[in-house]
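Suppose you are handed a protein chain with no further information: no name, no annotation, nothing but its sequence. What can you learn? This example shows the usual starting point.
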Amino acid sequence: MTRLCVLGALHWDVLVQAPNLPQRDETVRGSEVAYDFGGKGGNQAVSAQRNGAETYFVGRLGQDEFGKSLLRVLQESGLDLSQLQQDAGASGMSVAILETGGEYGAVIVSEANLRIDAAQVSLDAETGLLLLQNEIPEAINLALAQRARANGSEVWLNAAPAREIGPALMGQLDVVIMNRVEAQFYQAFFSNPAYQRLTKIITKGADGLDLILPDGACQSFPAFEVPSLSSHGAGDVFVGALAAQRLAQIPWESALRYAQAAAALHVATPRHQRSEITPSDIKALIQNSAL
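A reasonable first move is to predict its three-dimensional structure. Written in structure tokens, the prediction is:
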């Protein structure tokens, strides 16, 4: 089974450049505003497609101007959109504040993403991996995870943003990916022996990542050293690239280094040039870093 299904959210992002994130009751003067395609599901699907995975996307759009903009990017990406849903309501959106130093904070408004109808989704029989995130209701994730598991597919969860995960969904998962903030939230949760069977990946930005295998073995991977223009969206690039690599039967160590390199190039590349990053560019960074 060679196809990747990404179920998740779509947000039209409003990106504001500012010297720092505002504190409570503080107004900060921004220097620049831009608009971009976003949502963890959409970003991860596009990343996987660009990195060689035959990917179809399951999500929902409104029929507003944000929805039209999101649909245009999806169509240009080459994704299979046969399972994309639309309705007359509002599309998802977000506002992100990007600090001069490259860090960011964001607020999302889910709208259409909360209205995905799992009953309308037809999972392809060739689906080898189902990729989920926490930006849509867990009931929708669970419905598709159960069907994917029955089909023999692997099920991954990018456990972001952090929230409680029900035991029914946990029972369907093979891999959980989270950043270090989310890992703190889930620390007690994953100490449960019932969840030791999961492969866990903890990303730590410039400090690299940890891979924790079901047998308890932990391997750390250093980050690539690159200049940071903005980390916004880097985690999604990582997850999508990693899913593409594993679907192609690439071993964990090589797959993780590739995904790290993809995210590193994303961080180091101006926003308007990121769509031009190719697998060859990613492999070149890996090769040059090994010299």
